[in-house]
Specification:
Arc Repressor Mutant, subunit A, WH_DNA-bd_sf, WH-like_DNA-bd_sf, 4 helices, mainly alpha, about 45% helix, Helix-turn-helix domain-containing protein
Length: about 90
């Protein structure tokens, strides 16, 4: 079966369409692995969505258990993009 079965089976009130679209984008960006690290601005620009919509989608995906966010930092301590780990079904 498809690796999208979790998002296909989820009711719209639990997993909004924005989250489904962003999950597919992340799956594409992850390639054969389970992690990727695009910035919110990159996702928003590539998908023609607002930053707020992307942030809401990422929070939806985290809450639904489809991704895990891991904060990443530069050597000087400033925050950089998050590592996004896609959970396997």
């Amino acid at each position: 079966m498809s690796y999208f079965r979790s998002i296909y089976a989820a009711p719209p009130d639990e997993l909004p369409h924005r989250a489904r679209a962003v999950y597919m984008y992340l799956k594409d960006r992850a390639g054969k692995g389970t992690d990727c690290w695009p910035a919110v601005n990159t996702i928003a620009a590539d998908m023609q969505l607002s930053r707020s919509t992307v942030k809401r989608a990422l929070n939806d995906l985290t809450r639904f258990g489809l991704i895990e966010k891991e904060a990443r930092f530069r050597e000087n301590g400033s925050h950089t993009s998050n590592r996004l780990i896609l959970k396997e079904d």
